[in-house]
Amino acid sequence: MTNKMKIMLIEDDAVLCGEIESFLVKWGYEVAAARRFDEILREFTELAPHLVLIDINLPCYDGFYWCGQIRQVSQVPVIYISSRGEDSDKLMGIAQGGDDYVEKPFRLEILKAKMEALLRRTYEYKAGQAFLQNLISLQAGLVFDGASGLLFREGEEIGLTKAERRVLIRLTQARPQVVTREELMMALWDTEEYLSDGSLTTLVCRLRGKLKAACGDEIIRTRKGQGYFVA
Q1: What is the phi/psi pair of residue 73, to 5°?
Q2: pLDDT at position 32
């Protein structure tokens, strides 16, 4: 797994696609370019990206269609990148659920600035003054703000107790190293929740269950005789 924010790039111009991908990777993003333009929704579901960049003129179906399909299953932010600059196109993009529109040709720095503004609005709105670098990508759209201890799934907050936040903060700080049970007990000593050895097990199981219910994946792993870790 990775801490990087995942971007799905849907662009059939191979040269431009390569330029955007190289630029964003340089700035620390994980970029996955669409391969099958007739199966965009399947690729989107498998990738679970944090943001989508999509052209309008595409093979098979256009970007308006695919944005509408994505909106039926997700509220992930979508930015159109297109040479079509008519107001009618921009209005159609909004109507289909797009969040922003960048007209070709554009400077890559402008695209990056728009992306970062949209990522902050989507994933940090409820996290107060946290900065983008505090966001940790866990799995399948789960994003954890290591500064505030807030957990999000596609912009929606997942409720955690104070003790659960402390555990997840400590595990993500050490990732991918193992955190011993003694270290977790120390991290929790000043919370309102009294912890015995048995109740720590219950707490970790409860947190593990919340994470799995949110994304369907096992986020917290156990290393027998050592402790817990986030891969």
Answers
A1: -125, -10
A2: 94
Domains of the chain listed by start with CATH number: 6-126 (3.40.50.2300), 159-230 (1.10.10.10)
Cβ atoms within 10 A of the Cβ of 152, count? 22
Residue pair 112/23 in contact (Cβ under 8 Å)? The answer is yes
- The pLDDT tens digits for 7-63 are 999 999 999 999 999 999 998 899 999 999 999 999 998 888 889 999 999 998 999
Q: How many residues does the chain have?
A: 231
Cα 18 from Cα 63, distance rounded (Å): 19
b (16+ CB within 10 A) / e for 73-109: ebebbbbbbbebeeeebbebbeebbbbbbbeeeeeee
- Please state, in angstroms and rounded to a whole number, the distance separating the CA atoms of residues 40 and 142: 21
Q: What is the pTM of this model?
A: 0.59
Tens of pLDDT along 176-189? 899 999 888 888 87
